[in-house]
Fold these 2 entries.
Entry 1:
Amino acid sequence: MNVVHELNKIFGRIYKTKLILIEDAFKIEELTNYTMEKLLTDARSHRAKRYIFQPSGIEVNFYTGREKEYLILPNVWYCSCMSQYPSNMMKRRVCYHLLVYMICDALGLIDNYNVEDEYFQLIMQELK
Ligand SMILES: [Zn+2]
């Protein structure tokens, strides 16, 4: 069973209905070993944000962690913490930041910011 495939189906359902069914909540916990309580607490605490650069329209997604910002590429299920902790990838664990981000995306809880293109370099440098 492919965990990401399963999760994509669940998040697709949440996105459409803006509801988390109890069986989907159990499934998320089973697939990821994280509790929904913790995931939802972080989902509501404005950690997922999206910069929309103007006028280019480029969108860059971030997760604000306790110590730093992580770059999120939701289409390929990538979080920049994975390059810092490659063992997570080896163990095929799904990154916690990505999960919270996906929940925020599905429920419409991402904070969007319009930013001038000239700040692109500056913002990307904060990731280091
Ligand atoms: Zn991460």
Entry 2:
Amino acid sequence: MKELKNLRVDYSGDLIDIKKLKNNPIKQFEIWFKNAKKENIIEPNAMILSTISKNNLLNSRTVLLKNITDKGLVFFTNYESIKANDIMHNNNVSVVFLWKKIERQVIIKGKAVKITKRDSKKYFDSRPEKSKIAAWASKQSKELHNSSDLLKRFKNFENKFKNKLIPYPDFWGGYIIHPNSIEFWQGRSSRMHDRILYEKEKNKWNINRLYP
Ligand SMILES: Cc1cc2nc3c(=O)[nH]c(=O)nc-3n(C[C@H](O)[C@H](O)[C@H](O)COP(=O)(O)O)c2cc1C
């Protein structure tokens, strides 16, 4: 496509002031996340999660960040999905946040671990009713032979749980990503972008600037 080679945007951000950065990158991420939210970015918590399959192939998809704790980043999914199978074989994952409006990207690499059933249930119980039913209805990542089958399953579970508390499905829950590196990227003019990389060494975070 001819017009693609001329499709470019010049960014305008400032250099990141290393002196002002938090020692802990999760705290720094919280600051950038709050900023993205303040700028009314749609779903600033959408992140591209990459996992490694049993055959060492990569799989990437979007998931939503649902909690940030001192220990890491939490997302929820079906424990029988492709991503869950990948994590079972190899729990090294990476997530990428792209906040185009503020010319920022954050890349987090780490190990994904299932959160407790209690915490998964707590979040499940807080979800809207239809989302809970959808979790029951979806055999996530399995082949759906006929799209009407999904609707049938949704209606069946809707009837089954009518006027009842929707139970927590054991096959669904959260993962926490314990980071071992976090990179903050700020777009700048003339492709002179700024990159700050935090890397965990034992229990200490090293902070370095990278060439763009
Ligand atoms: C904006 C957006 C948010 C999404 N959030 C989630 C999520 O939080 N959890 C989830 O399991 N899938 C989510 N999905 C769907 C996933 O991208 C993916 O299709 C699904 O989880 C199956 O992935 P898998 O087959 O690789 O396991 C989201 C998709 C989009 C586009």
